[in-house]
User: Fold this.
Amino acid sequence: MFSKDPIINLENFQKQRVYFGFFLGFNSYDFKIDYKTVSEDIEVKKTTGFNVGLVADLKLQEYINLRFEPGLYYTQRNFVYPDSYFGYTPTYSQKNREVNSTNIHLPLLLKFSSKRTGNIRPYVLGGVSATLNLSGNAKSKDDNLEQVFRAKSWTKNYELGLGIDLFSEYFIFSPSIRGVFGLNDEIIQDNDPFSPWTSNIESIKSRAIFINFTFH
Assistant:
C-alpha cells in the first residue's frame, strides 16, 4: 500500500454510483455553556464514549460524494456546580449531576476527496445533522430538585472533519476525525425559576469530537 509503485487495489471501486459500509469509533462530548450573569463556571467533566453505525454513500461527481451516516452514540458528561450557586453548603449529590446521553445521530455530509495516489485518498467532509437524545428526560415532570437533569430530545448541528481512504485488497479502511457543533439550546429549565442548577444558564449546546473507523 505504501510502496513506491504499489499494486492498485479495488481500482474500479470508485466508479460505483452507490455503496455502503459501517463504522465503529469513539467520541468525546462537551458542553458550551452561556450564562445570564457573570458567575463561576460550571465544570464539565468529559468521558470517552463509543459509536457504531452505517454508511450510505452516493457519488455525485468524481471527487464529491453525498453521505448519510446514521449511528448510535453513547456518552456521559458530569456537571460539577460551584458551591457559590447555593445559599448553603451543598452535598455531593446536590452539586454533581451525571448527564447520560444515548444519541441517534443522523448526519448528511458532503465528502470532498483528493485525487487518488496509489492506494491512498485523503478527504475533507462537512454538513449538517440532527441528534435524537433517547435519555434526555425531556418528558419528565421531575427536575434537578429530584436529581433529574432534563435536556431536549432533538438538537441540530453542523459538522466538519477530515479523513483518509486506504485501499486494501478486499476493502477500504477509512479513519476520520470530525468536530460536531450544536446549534440550539438543549437545556430544559427547572420548575423553580430560582433553581440553583438552571436559573443562571442562558443556553447549553453540545460540542463533540468523533473518531470513526469506517469499512466499505
Observations:
- The longest strand covers residues 18-35.
- Strands lie at 18-35, 43-46, 48-61, 64-68, 71-80, 96-113, 120-133, 154-167, 172-182, 201-215.
- The chain has a mean pLDDT of 91.
- The first helix runs from residue 92 to 95.
